[in-house]
Amino acid sequence: MTRDDPVRLYRTVRLIRRFEERAVDLVRAGAIVGGIHPYLGQEGIAAGVCAALRDDDLVTGTHRGHGHVLAKGADPARMLAELLGRETGLNRGRGGSMHAADLAVGVLGANAIVGAAGAILTGAVWARRRRGDDLVGATFFGDGAVNEGMLLEAFNLAALWRVPVLFVCENNGYATTMPVEGAVAGTIPGRAEAFGMPAAVVDGQDPEAVRDATAAAVARMRAGGGPELIEARTYRFDAHHTFEHAVRLDYRAPQEVAAGRSRDPVEIQGARLSGVDRAAVDADVEATLDAALEFALASPEPDPAGALAHLYASGLVARTGGG
Amino acid sequence: MPRLSYRKALTRALADEMARDESVFLLGEDIRVAASNVTAGLLKRFGPDRVVDTPLSEQAFTSFATGAALAGLRPVVEFQIPSLLFLVFEQIVNHAHKFPLMTGGQAEVPVTYLVPGSGSRTGWAGQHSDHPYSLFAHVGVTTVVPATPADAYGLLVSAIRHVDPVVVFAPAGAMDVRADVDFAALAPVPIGRGRVHRAGDDVTVVAVGHLVHDALAVAEELADQVSVEVFDPRTLYPFDWDGLTASVARTGRLVVVDDSNRSCGIAGEIIATVVERVRLLAPPRRVTRPDGAVLPFAPALDRAVQPGREQLTAAIQLTMKDE
Ligand SMILES: Cc1ncc(C[n+]2csc(CCOP(=O)(O)OP(=O)(O)O)c2C)c(N)n1
Ligand SMILES: [Mg+2]
After folding, report:
1. Residues B256 and B287 sit within 8 Å (Cβ to Cβ)
2. What region holds the Transketolase-like pyrimidine-binding domain (chain B) (predicted)?
């Protein structure tokens, strides 16, 4: 089975889907504090992009970042432990939903400042390549981020210095409640083209379409090409953030939500599998997540005495008391 | 002994570290031609791959440096104007500084931010004359403000070798200071270690950066009336509280001269910490910029809002009168 095998791609979208559904339940149950930004409905993008990347390629995610971290290969058990604030979490319980990072699998972190991660990834890929590694990077961001100046500065640096970074815009139609039409002058590919970057628009609900568009861009980048942009059109099935489950915000008509949900990446990819294969993957995903939850719940909470552990890589201990 | 200027000391530190460690490189605006004069000669010696001129994109190149550091390089980022630090406070504080804790210790971000000509340059007015070191101390970013050529050399070397982000403020008021220096004795200066420039018995004057030279001049002027000890913290965060406490425990009096705005400036923190630790003989005093100061253009106005020797003299005399 190759990495971009249809079964494998289905497994990734299904894993993210069920991970997120369980995470939403854990938020409702009060086990995950602070809530999450569910990636539900957008699974095809992280899965498709990461299927076309190598293990050593680098990515950054967003505040809606669980899918990015899982698709790149982080352990779901340690990811869940992170959401539950456990010492065994990817970030030892210091990061949580919005900062989950796993440098060992090339995830330089979900990043909760909208538009901020592109420049970080550009610098990281540039640095690794000058040390002789031929890897590339992919940085995920939403439609809201395309109006942040710092991201546009990163487009310029990456294009100017031909750093092979794939800028992946997950256009789910809204930045929180602000519709794209109310926020974006011009177009999203137009922003890339202004910097001389090739740009493609792809159906983000079709994991294979995302994978193929990514594979084409990555092949050009590995052959010496500069950065590219993909605008993946998608729809967020659930709330911007789980706080919306308690506070109804009136910005999406029910008909629109129903139409958006009718194109489901899990179903689209699932239809490409035999019923037997699909059932086997579904069972495997449930078993994986059952074990993940068991692991996470059995894991210790961090000792408050170490609340500021890792504040400094140099080991400096912050002054906590008076004097 | 040969004379070394503060500015040349910075250049020498950069050159020595670049020669010692391949992973050190410079990033900034107009650094190839050395507009600030600090990077003079480095392009010729180390080539354009290690002396990288950037477009005017402070936010992107600051985070680009974060990424490069995450990927194992040691960037030194030069800023042309101290006030640009407000532009990149986001990138330094929200990302570079927070990554080690947020990732639970997975990430190290060894970046040096070099600010040659911080504080007033006389006649550069509101947007070029800030001295925001207290802000970085407040958020916990390692912050050094060398006063002398040897310390400029030694602290810049230590900053580059440090595994966490360090902001190096090189005050405009110190850039032209020259001193007799034994080049063979130039060495790294430990971060977090203060220095007594002049021993005294009656009052400890804590002076930051270029103000060390003013404090030494005032101490000489007052030598027949009062015995002044001049303490230069050199690093503002982490601060050498033990070194300062030892000094004030002997003198029993404290005056701080600090080029920050008064509210929430480092002088307030120094006084608070000392009075938590030492029973003083007289109320402590501080000489600072006024609350919320914006440096006005006209030279007399610019001088009027900076801490000066007359105010320091008055503060020392007042402290000596109080019992
Ligand atoms: C710079 C910045 N501004 C505002 C916010 C608050 N915020 C968090 S998510 C969000 C919307 C982001 O929209 P988009 O980029 O489209 O991503 P999506 O949530 O739709 O995935 C906002 C405004 C933030 N985190 N960072
Ligand atoms: Mg959006």
Report:
1. yes
2. 4-177
A318 lies in a domain? no
A167: domain range?
A: 6-306
Residues with Cβ within 8 Å of A78's Cβ and at least 6 positions away in sequence, in order, are A88, A89, A90, A102
Q: Which of A60, A176, A231 to mutate to test the pocket of ligand 1 (most atoms within 8 A of CB)?
A: A176
What is the number of domains present in chain A?
1
Residue A190 within any structural domain of the chain: yes
In angstroms, the separation between the Cα of residue A147 and the nearest Cα of chain B is 14
> How many angstroms is it from A235 CA to the middle of ligand 2?
9
**Looking at the domain assignment, is residue A323 inside a domain?**
no
- ipTM for the assembly: 0.90
**Whole-prediction pTM value?**
0.94
- Which residue is listed with tokens 């970085």? B136
pLDDT at A4: 55
The share of chain A scoring above pLDDT 70, in percent, equals 98
Q: What is the tens place of the pLDDT at every residue in A260-301?
A: 999 999 999 999 999 999 999 999 999 999 999 999 999 999
Residues A154, B60: C-beta atoms closer than 8 Å:
yes
Residue B250 CB burial class (10 angstroms; 0-12, 13-18, ≥19): middle
Query: How close A317 comes to chain B (CA, Å)?
Result: 9
Among A44, A95, A51, A41, which residue's Cα sits nearest to residue A73? A51
Q: If we measure between CA atoms, which residue out of B114, B109, B204 comes closest to residue B152?
A: B114
pLDDT at A122 over 50: yes
CATH code for position A181: 3.40.50.970
In a domain, A50, yes or no: yes
The residue to mutate among A63, A99, A171, having the most atoms of ligand 1 within 8 angstroms of its beta carbon, is A63
- Average pLDDT of adjacent 10-residue blocks, chain B of 323 residues: 95 98 97 93 97 96 98 97 97 98 98 97 92 98 98 98 98 96 95 98 98 98 98 98 98 98 98 97 97 92 95 98 77
Of B91, B106, B140, nearest to A318 by CB-CB distance is B140
Q: Which residue ranges have their beta carbon within 6 Å of ligand 1?
A: A 37, 62-64, 112-115, 142-145, 170, 172, 174-176, 240
Q: Map out the domains of chain B with their CATH numbers.
A: 3-185 (3.40.50.970), 195-317 (3.40.50.920)
